[in-house]
Amino acid sequence: MKRLGIVVLLCLSIVLSGFTVYSANAEPPVKPVAGGTLQLPLDGDVNSLDPALFTTAGERAIIPALFDTLMIYDQTTGALDYGLARGIQVSKDGKVFRITLRKGVLFHHGRALTAEDVKFSFDRAANP
Q1: What is the pTM of this model?
Q2: Per-residue pLDDT at 21 exceeds 60
Q3: pLDDT: is 46 or 27 the higher one?
Q4: CB of 20 closer than 8 Å to CB of 12
Q5: Which pLDDT belongs to residue 10?
Q6: Is the pLDDT assigned to residue 22 strictly greater than 60?
Q7: Burial zone of 107 (CB within 10 Å; 0-12 exposed, 13-18 middle, 19+ buried)
Q8: pLDDT for 3 beyond 70
């Protein structure tokens, strides 16, 4: 029994000494710097940056960084938050969605985002 206690204490001291060495050698956090280039590895090819035509994992990783959406889905929490939409009302039968758009948002043509632009995007995604 005494021998087991010594082994446990020895193991515990080895583990704890590892934490001490790690924390003593830790580098201070790096201050962010503006500018530069961000390079990320992608899982798959990138054949198109068209959100209506993406087919690869690489495209799926890039497109959300390039295009805003009406709603934003947080994969970690499962929560939905507003993106380009400012509010959404759903009819009682669940067939009609009334979406209020954020003001001051520009569509890719440089003009203010309108309901017609959103409809165009939905129609194009349904029939690319």
Answers
A1: 0.60
A2: no
A3: 46
A4: no
A5: 55
A6: no
A7: middle
A8: no
Bridge partners of 88, per DSSP, are 99
Sort strands 71-73 and 80-82 into parallel, antiparallel or unpaired.
antiparallel
Maximum pairwise Cα distance, the chain:
80
Question: Cα–Cα–Cα angle for 40, 46, 47, nearest 5°?
Answer: 165
Helix (H) or strand (E) holding 2: helix 2-25
Residue with tokens 């959406």: 69
Residue type, 2: K
Q: Are strands 71-73 and 85-90 parallel, antiparallel or unpaired?
A: unpaired
Q: Sketch the domain layout of the chain as residue ranges.
A: 85-126
- Tell me the per-residue pLDDT of 77-125, one tens digit each, with 9 for 90 and over: 999 999 999 999 999 999 999 999 999 999 888 899 999 999 998 898 8
Q: How long a stretch of residues is the chain?
A: 128
CA distances from 28 to 16, 20, 23 (A): 21, 16, 11
